Structure formats: structure tokens, C-alpha cells
Amino acid sequence: MNITYRVELTQDEHQYLEQLTSKGPHNSRVIKRANILRLADNHAHSHEAIAALTGCGTATVFRVKRKFVELFLLSCFIQ
User: Fold this and answer.
1) Which residue has the higher pLDDT, 59 or 71?
2) Contact 18, 35 (CB under 8 A)
3) Is the CB of residue 47 less than 8 Å from the CB of residue 55?
4) Mean pLDDT over each residue of the chain, to the nearest integer
5) What is the pTM of this model?
6) List of residues 6+ apart from 76 with CB closer than 8 A
7) pLDDT of 2 over the 60 cut
8) Is the separation of the CB atoms in 51 and 60 below 8 Å?
9) Phi, psi at residue 7, to the nearest 5°?
10) SS3 for 60?
């Protein structure tokens, strides 16, 4: 059974992620996760495409999306 997690960002969440990736000193892991969520918004790209664009594995993309859908936006950045 394949589970698909659909990421749908609100306008506020999208703006928050944009600011997070464009301003201030942030951990590279946080920036990568923010970029994954931005690319996954409204199922714009596949796991493979997101992984290639962000330079991470498809498992990372899956875990970030799962954490966002099951928990909350800020939980994606906490280990």
C-alpha cells in the first residue's frame, strides 16, 4: 500500500517559508526542508523531481511531507 501525503500550504505558510529561505542565517537542513515543502505545494512536483531539485533523497522528501501533513508546519523543522 502506497501512502501519498498531499501538501497544501496556506498563503501565510507559503510566505513564512519564502521568508525563511530568503532572509537571515538558518541551518541548511531548515532551508532544505522549507524548499521541499514549497516544491511539494499542491502536488506541483513528484518526489523524484523534488529530490533532484533540492539535492536530497526521495525518503527525505517523503518524511518531510509526512511530518507536515500529520503534525504541523513548525514540526517539520524540529528533529
Assistant:
1) 59
2) no
3) no
4) 85
5) 0.84
6) 33, 37, 64, 67, 68
7) yes
8) yes
9) -95, 120
10) helix
C-alpha 31/C-alpha 17 separation (Å) is 9
HSE, CB side, 13 Å, CA atoms: give it for residue 29.
Answer: 6
Which parts of 1-79 fold into alpha helices (H)?
11-22, 28-40, 47-54, 58-70
pLDDT at 35: 92
Q: Rounded to whole angstroms, how far apart are CA atoms 48 and 10?
A: 24
Residue 41 pairs in a beta bridge with 7
Cα 74 vs. chain centroid, distance in angstroms?
11
Which residue is listed with cell 507536515? 68
In whole angstroms, what is the distance from residue 12 CA to residue 50 CA? 22
Task: Tell me which amino acid residue 55 is.
Answer: G
Q: What's at 1, amino acid-wise?
A: M
Classify residue 33 by its DSSP letter.
H
C-alpha cell at 45: 512536483
- Cell numbers for 43: 502536488
